[in-house]
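note to self — DONT lose this again. spent like an hour looking for the file last time. sequence + predicted structure for the chain T wanted, 323 res
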Amino acid sequence: MIKTALTRMFDLRHPIVLGPMGGVAGGALAAAVSNAGGLGLVGGGYGDPDWLRTELAIVRRSTDASWGAGVITWAVGRELMQQILAEQPHAVMLSFGDPRPHGALVKAAGCKLICQVQDLAGALLAREAGADLIVAQGTEAGGHGSARSTLALVPAVVDAVAPVPVLAAGGIADGRGLAAALMLGAQGALVGTRFYASDEALGSSRAKACIANGSGEQTQRTTVFDIVRGYSWPEPYTGRALRNQFMARWHGREPALADAVSTESTRFKQAQQEEDFETVMVWAGEATDLIQSIEPAGEIVQRISTDAERCLNAGAAMCRADQ
């Protein structure tokens, strides 16, 4: 069994955290990850209070293990944060924006603060905010992120914020990725896309099948899905999704899309209802190559951890003096 600062902090059996994917990581998925020995995080996204009320209630009644929630920092207000904290999560994760105002609320509630960052400046700001854990997210990640790659970013953040423990995110979907993250100095991994393709994840089974049948080469970072949905994401954030016809039509023509957004948004909403994934995005990371099936989340947690332990033992064997 792998023991790290992460597993000790939350009494986990495995150093694996569920990425709080908005609209995907609901209460059932978070509970399944927590019950399997990882840390499940409900994806609060842009902060729909009714959705959160439902999903937080599900995770609370479905697990006795540690769990938490994550939100998009710039998109939510104090009232929403207080709603989350009233449910007594063990951790709250803040991503994309200055974590200090909301971080102060989290810390005052006696809750562990997790901050996801995409560069060294963000990591230092997270440390200033009092983060108990800092997630260094590489550009390989699905959904929103920035430009730095996981392999170089993680050890740089580890060095910059020590002794605050760091998790790695971006392009991790199996035990090899977790083992590599640990060797980079991380205390565990935050995993998103692999759990999107799980039985308990919310969302369309067709979207999950797109991930299982996709590849990393079919993903691309873009802003077109934010523009058509009316979300004004600040720079430098873009979203990595599987390429489709909508992306092919509008990527590189963002000003034209903005001019046509009233018409295109109506078409986009209709496509959402019809599960038309040549129009609607499927957020997915470059580790899509490593995902071939939709499985129970608990089995995913166990396999990633077991395979990581096998990799670490194999690596140690390479260094034995008698070899």
